[in-house]
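Q: What residues go here?
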């Protein structure tokens, strides 16, 4: 996806916020800030694709500053704990639901988790209400199409995880997909990860692995699944899958211009004006967009 003028502000602000949050050394923070700004502007001037700019600037910062990596490691651990504290009460909100009604509620719960995002300038996370999430209308609602595709079972689903805490809110839907007789393979980022996205080491003690048939790493720490960079195992899982579920904005930004040769279900909350405009919905909407 090509960037917008607002994307320049967003990426630079997020990178600078990471430096200021993680570093106490003023001189080093200034040095890193100037280095990141210079590198980001170079990528913008070259017209690089948006997710590559975000991913490459973070990669440079992560290599130069272990403090930033640790800052996110702590944030991810805390967000996973928060998410489990919320999702444990889900049964009382869905106990009377079944079939498509239940499926749609679980879609909304998964989307609600996408609010746990530290990588969008101006976005603030204020917690998740399961009740409010289930009552929300979907601005784009392809739930029926997805449900009809998977309800008979036998499908191989590749699940592209996004933010670490968000992954916990994905699990009830993943459980239902598997209960229907489908196989779900999860794909997460390689260390040190990208911002607060779920990475391979975050899985330890997260409670996520037990809900999947298989979990693989992308093989690198970029923001999405660049087809010329993913590991052979990830490429195999992608090729063998019947459908891809892509969580969050980065996967949308990249995959909207890529033909995977199979359906892709995007579950996300557009948290900036640029993505909201591209999707064609108001900012903050719940989106379940199936592209075939």
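A:
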């Amino acid at each position: 996806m090509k960037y917008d003028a607002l994307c320049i502000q967003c990426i630079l602000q997020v990178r600078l916020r990471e430096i200021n949050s993680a570093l106490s050394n003023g001189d080093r923070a200034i040095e890193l800030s100037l280095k990141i700004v210079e590198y980001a502007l170079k990528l913008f001037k070259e017209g690089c694709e948006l997710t590559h700019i975000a991913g490459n600037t973070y990669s440079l910062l992560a290599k130069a500053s272990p403090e930033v990596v640790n800052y996110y490691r702590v944030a991810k651990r805390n967000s996973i704990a928060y998410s489990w504290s919320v999702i444990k009460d889900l049964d009382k909100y869905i106990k009377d639901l079944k079939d498509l009604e239940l499926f749609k509620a679980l879609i909304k719960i998964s989307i609600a988790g996408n609010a746990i995002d530290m990588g969008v300038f101006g976005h603030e996370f204020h917690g998740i209400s399961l009740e409010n999430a289930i009552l929300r209308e979907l601005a784009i609602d392809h739930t029926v199409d997805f449900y009809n595709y998977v309800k008979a079972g036998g499908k191989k689903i590749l699940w592209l995880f996004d933010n670490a805490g968000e992954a916990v809110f994905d699990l009830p839907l993943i459980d239902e997909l598997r209960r229907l007789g489908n196989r779900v393979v999860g794909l997460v980022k390689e260390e040190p990860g990208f911002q607060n996205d779920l990475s391979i080491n975050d899985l330890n003690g997260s409670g996520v692995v037990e809900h999947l048939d298989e979990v693989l790493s992308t093989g690198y720490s970029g923001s999405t699944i660049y087809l010329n960079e993913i590991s052979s195992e990830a490429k195999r899982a992608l090729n063998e899958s019947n459908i891809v579920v892509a969580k969050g904005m980065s996967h949308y930004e990249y995959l909207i211009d890529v033909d995977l040769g199979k359906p892709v279900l995007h579950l996300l909350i557009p948290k900036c004006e640029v993505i909201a405009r591209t999707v064609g919905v108001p900012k903050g909407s719940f989106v379940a967009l199936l592209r075939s």
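A: Context that may help when evaluating the design: The chain has two domains: 5-68, 89-291. Strands lie at 138-141, 156-160, 183-188, 214-217, 243-247, 264-268, 286-291.
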